[in-house]
Amino acid sequence: xxxxxxxxxxxxxxxxxxxxxxxxxxxxxxxxxxxxxxxxxxxxxxxxxxxxxxxxxxxxxxxxxxxxxxxxxxxxxxxxxxxxxxxxxxxxxxxxxxxxxxxxxxxxxxxxxxxxxxxxxxxxxxxxxxxxxxxxxxxxxxxxxxxxxxxxxxxxxxxxxxxxxxxxxxxxxxxxxxxxxxxxxxxxxxxxxxxxxxxxxxxxxxxxxxxxxxxxxxxxxxxxxxxxxxxxxxxxxxxxxxxxxxxxxxxxxxxxxxxxxxxxxxxxxxxxxxxxxxxxxxxxxxxxxxxxxxxxxxxxxxxxxxxxxxxxxxxxxxxxxxxxxxxxxxxxxxxxxxxxxxxxxxxxxxxxxxxxxxxxxxxxxxxxxxxxxxxxxxxxxxxxxxxxxxxxxxxxxxxxxxxxxxxxxxxxxxxxxxxxxxxxxxxxxxxxxxxxxxxxxxxxxxxxxxxxxxxxxxxxxxxxxxxxxxxxxxxxxxxxxxxxxxxxxxxxxxxxxxxxxxxxxxxxxxxxxxx
Length: 515
What we know:
Blueprint: E1 3-10, E2 13-19, H1 26-37, E3 43-49, E4 55-58, E5 69-76, H2 80-88, E6 95-97, H3 100-107, H4 132-148, H5 156-173, H6 179-192, H7 206-226, H8 229-232, H9 269-283, H10 290-299, H11 301-311, H12 315-321, H13 328-339, H14 343-364, H15 370-381, H16 387-402, E7 411-415, H17 420-424, E8 429-436, E9 439-450, E10 453-459, H18 462-475, H19 485-495, H20 504-514
Parallel strand pairs: 1-5, 7-8
Antiparallel strand pairs: 1-2, 2-6, 3-4, 3-5, 8-9, 9-10
Helix pairs in contact: 5-7, 6-7, 9-10, 13-18, 14-16, 14-18, 15-16, 19-20
């Protein structure tokens, strides 16, 4: 079977490679690439995985490659001089140069290189490798500390090297770490280099933790001046806007890995706006190219996030500018770009684990929650078919009751003969279930409502609607409704495992579910 490859050698060089047969192993493929493209030096091969929105993945087996054609990216292990030599030597007659426009679409459209993929704060925190001379001094300091318990009197140069490298390592994971996360960095530092422990300190790293905090602030300032979008959205201060509105720090939400990322290389506001306009035109067609839509949505992610986080527009404005965003597929994709988690799989998988335990809790404490909880459990008892789905729905309906939230304005219901606009008119964030006039138990339509308008409808069940609503709140950077605060916090911390910090009420629920 023939295989057509686009091999991206560098940001400015790509080559088309036609293979009459597929190599049996990755090592053989590397040898073929080196021979046919006349490349020198060691490199790693990555490929654009269509199952994950063309995200770059390391190629470990040939079966991972898409059939017939694929885009490969070469990650060089050697220095740039070797790379330049390799690029200059590419002249195989069996290859054809790729058009410059195709080059840009093949590598700049894959913005995953700008995206973070770490979903949890690492424990213990990995202290980065320092310069050779500093590592040498610290190693000798550790040896002295082990013998005499005498710490190292770190010079200013040593401290600056440590703080600079740690600030960069932290920002690669999270731009605004929490207090306990900074605590873990300080703890890991003195654990790796005990000679840096501070005498007289209870923990031995209080001073280091404070220094890391301020160094990270200075690092963000440098990045802001350099034009980093993620910190630039927080550049305005109180009184700096025309309406003199108070400044609000736009921190990432719980579990956000990619809050506001930088634009792809060689792209600007102008070029990304052009891509957005192409996307809008594609959405006007009856027969849409879903591959193209996915491609453009990936490319314009950073522009879209900057508009939403910095400008805080109304949902209707975002719908007008980004119509492709309000489909089930793109809500899931955008949620994955922001959190690096699969929306539906995460939400469906966790309830499968917790539904039996939640229902046991509901039955055990049914009397403490009054008639509302009894209605939920009685409705479940009346079901005779599709029991698993109805158990999940009962667990979800009972959750806000159990954590003592108010569902009156959230779970909306109406009959098929009612006017939906009147029911949802004042709803900010809600789920609407439409029933037949003579059947109040089975919904014929489940819809997601934001700012008094239906965003999605004809969803199969309440759990699916809640998952897409949860994804939309992250996509639109909208806070969960106050009357349902603890319900959404439970979904974040327990179902999606987004962040470790939560309120005492949800911490207590999580403990009960783990018993």
